From TrEMBL:
It comes from the Eukaryota. GO terms for biological process: entrainment of circadian clock by photoperiod; locomotor rhythm; SCF-dependent proteasomal ubiquitin-dependent protein catabolic process. This is GL19490. Residues 111-335 form the F-box/LRR-repeat protein 15-like leucin rich repeat domain. GO terms for cellular component: SCF ubiquitin ligase complex. InterPro entries: FBXL15_LRR (IPR057207), Leu-rich_rpt_Cys-con_subtyp (IPR006553), LRR_dom_sf (IPR032675). Pfam families: DUF7885. CDD domains: F-box_FBXL15.
Amino acid sequence: MCSLHVEEEAHLAAMAGNRDRTLTCIELFDICWEDVLIPHMSIYLSLKDLFNLRCCSQTARRFAETALEKRQELHLSGNNTRNIDLGFQVVARCCRRLEVLHLACCKWLTDDLLLPLLTNNKHRLCAVNLNECVNITALSLQPIIVECKDLRILKLSKCQWLTTGAVDALTLHQSKLVEFDISHCGAIGERCLIIFFRKLNKLTVLSLAHTPSVTDQVLIQIGNYCRELEHINLMGCVAISDYGVHALTVHCLRLRTLQIRRCPRVTERSLAPLRQRRLYIDRPWQDNAYNAYNLNDFYPSDFLVYYALAKSCPRLQSLMVQRCPLVTERVLAPLRGRVHLDRPSMGYNLPASQHHRLFLQV
């Protein structure tokens, strides 16, 4: 309920006792706040309108702050005007029922400003957008991860402060996400993503664009566990190949959008069957690319060696992999000592070909 101050109660009591008062003397704030002004008028006022109204009088200030307390959505994406941090402190103090929070590209946003807002609204938030918020840290994610039990949408694109530890915490506490965006997040490991996607069986929208740790193994896990997926953005994921795309699309039968530009190892061999399903693919049809020279057709990769040989053939004694540019020490190192290899060791993390570097962890 909307609590009234002592002055307001006295003012309303004086109005009720004065029978001779005419209707022409009634002011805006004499109308019932809880039943009329807040639910039917304040919803049409923007955040700017409320702050302008807040400057008019003490009563207008209390009304604006009461309206902020009832507000369910806050949209400040891209707003970097002067002194906005001061206004945000007022919003963080007053807002108590926020469900949707959009703060993308807010360069002024820091942990000290964001944490009070999250603390006051953590039990109701269902959508949080922090894309390109470069001046906050993983500390701000703690109340979101642990306390926001109704969280459904989380966007953290270009947040370089997002670490493997934060994603591990998300794995433990958040399993109901339907939309997730970690594009351009280079600090996250492959193994972390594999474990994470095993928990997200309700995911429908996923963006992993330009995330170097996204490999075929990650796509296989997404296909196995995220069967409700409808839209996925894999633009710029250079480590994925036809194998991963095929494994993803075979299981995700509800998939409607596949963004696959700038993925040189993905060819029409995996995309052509998807076009027949009327799946939207952001890469145009390349007729000459179907039969073009493709390293996937002639050379085994780390992915194939690991799954086809290392895991399926426990009695393997000899492996000849010379002149296989896509097979690196990332998969050969665990085999050395128990399997004869015709290629000398080049260091565990040294890729055989810089043009086809894989981020495989075994």
